[in-house]
Input
Amino acid sequence: MAAVKTVATTPFAGQKPGTSGLRKKVAVFAQPHYLENFVQSVFDSIGDVTGKTLVVGGDGRYHNRTAIQTILKMAAANGFARVMVGQGGILSTPAASCVIRKYRTFGGIILSASHNPGGPAEDFGIKYNIPAGGPAPEAITEAIYARSQAITLYRIIEADNVDLDRLGTAQLGDMAVEVFDPVADYAALMESLFDFDAIRAAFKAGLRMKFDAMHAVTGPYALEILERRLGAAPGTVMHGVPLEDFGGGHPDPNLVHAHDLVAALTGAGAPDFGAASDGDGDRNMILGRDFYVTPSDSLAVLAANATLCPGYAKGLKGIARSMPTSAAPDRVAAKLGIPAWETPTGWKFFGTLLDAGLATLCGEESFGTGSDHVREKDGLWAVLMWLNVLAKRGQSVAAIVTAHWAEYGRNVYSRHDYEGIDTKAADQLMAHLRGLDLKGKSLGGYTVAFNDDFAYTDPVDGSVSTKQGIRVVFEDDSRIVFRLSGTGTEGATLRVYIERYEPDPAKHVLDPQVALADLIRIARDLAEIEARTGRTEPTVIT
Ligand code: G16
Output
């Protein structure tokens, strides 16, 4: 029996989980007591942990292994009976959700700062997922934060580190540590949802793809599922080895950061299908040859084609999207005669809808797509669903999406990000927008139907979330949305989401930056972006 140490500590300011857990620079997490305080605050806020099982793993970024050893020793000291850890400390966010649900554990701790860069000078993060497998809802994250601000002690055992690379069960004090294969359960779940035979046949018949794992967590998952089980050509998976610094890259699957993939999918000889995932494997970007699919359109197309996949053959119960996501999925829901839900940004808001059987598919403009198979967004799942649809329809990505627009009309959409701006200027900009009364006014030829700060009442549990983004909605349903990112670690990031509905197929070919030029100008003027932030152009456009 290892001795339990009770260590006196004092609170750190700012241990408030953001959109998805607590994200800070590695140097912040590496300070004595910092991680320990947060972990103890989690254990103190989730009920009696005695005799329970916890899942632990991360995206393999710098500090992952160190943090896991600390969490294991604290879990043992706090009375957990068993911790399941992904081999090598690796566990993608959706795989963690899968394992938590499959083995009915008392939730899990996931170590990731998602799409943020990794390395000694970069970001680290930690989040707690509840027994249903999803991110902790606000009531729990608020409790964790409150606890962190009043903490006086944490518990840890003195013991040697556990070998995270050896599969099997080891003993840590009175607690069992089971090091398991992080891919197996997840891969089995994917096989149960999608037509692997059809996908295998499509690869055999010459379908070519590239998957960019961005040197992050999905490498081992993609190699096993795409190349080994589905027979995609060797080399299909790019950057497949997880590295602590993601090879110096920014593991964010968008047109800017996944540049190698974008280059590979450009030109006449390019593969038919391209996809990328992020640091912890929950995001996805979908490309065809010379063709980019926005995350909003991706959700709409997958919803419209879902019954081609065995796991969704019976149809969908509903479709949920975050507020800044385009209304393209709503059009599919209307046609299918199923509910369309609009939630605040953050996957945690989908949990109650999925649990209550009110929605089957969910998605966000921030490259997140998923379903009720787990309670996180799921990058590889989206890639496999696309592969299933491609295999069944035998058409190109571009043909499928343009046919979708012809049928439903196109929600032309773009997001402009202004990263690393001064926090005070960002807050003032949002306050300025909040103070505007625009109803009935004409802006550059567009009449404002209403403007507000989005608030949401959860239809299942009644919880209320306010200040979720400024909406300026015009009479023709065009929209501009302004939000500050909840996932950054440096300064503030202003996100501007611009959308216009275009029913005319002749105009669907236009570049969104051209088609949306008026609204983009209106957004910049309205928010006084240049005057308030000094920025004349966004840092990232997707
Ligand atoms: C997280 C959440 C997502 C959310 C995104 C928004 O993504 O899990 O549900 O859409 O943040 O980010 P921001 O607040 O920066 O716009 P991830 O992939 O970072 O976990």
Residues 19-20, 114-115, 278, 282-283, 322, 345-347, 364, 366, 368, 485-487, 495 surround 1,6-di-O-phosphono-alpha-D-glucopyranose (CB under 6 Å).
